[in-house]
Amino acid sequence: MLGIKRSAAALSLAGLALAHAANADTRPELRIGVVSSMTGGASAIAAGAVATINLMQERLGQDAELPFRVTFVKYDDGSDPARAVNAARKLIQEDRVHLVICCTTTPASLAVNKVVEEEKTPNLSLASAAAVIEPADQHRFTFKTPLTDRLMIVRTVDYLRSKGYRTVAFMGLEDSYGEGGWVEFQRIAGEKGMKIVSAERFARGDTNFTPQAMRVVRQKPDAVYVHAIPPSSALAHESLRRVGFGGEILHGAGSSTAALIAVGKKAIEGAVVGTAALTVYRQLPASHPIKPVVERFVGLYEGKYGAGKADLFAAQAYDTVNIPVAAYRQVVAAGKASGLAQARLALRDAIEQTREYVGVTGIYNYSPQDHLGLDGRSTFLAIVRNGKFELLK
Amino acid sequence: MTMDALTSLFLLVDGLTNGAVYSLLGLSLVLVYTTTRVVNIAQGEYITFGALTYASFLESTLAPVAYVVAAGGAACLLLDLRRARHGQRSLLRPLAGYLGAFLALAVLCMLSLRLPFAGLRMLASAALVAALGPIVYRLTVEPKPDSSTVVLVIIGVGVAMILHPLALLLWGPDPRPVPALSDASLAFAGIGVGAQSLFIVAISLAAALALYLFFRHTLAGKALRAASINREGAEYCGIPVVFAGRLSYFLAAALSGLSGMLLAPLVTAHYEMGFVVGLKGFVGAAMGGLINYPLSVAGVFLVGALESFASFLSSAYRDALVFALVIPILLWRNRGGAAHDE
Question: For the domain bounded by B5-175+185-336, which CATH number is listed?
Answer without folding.
Answer: 1.10.3470
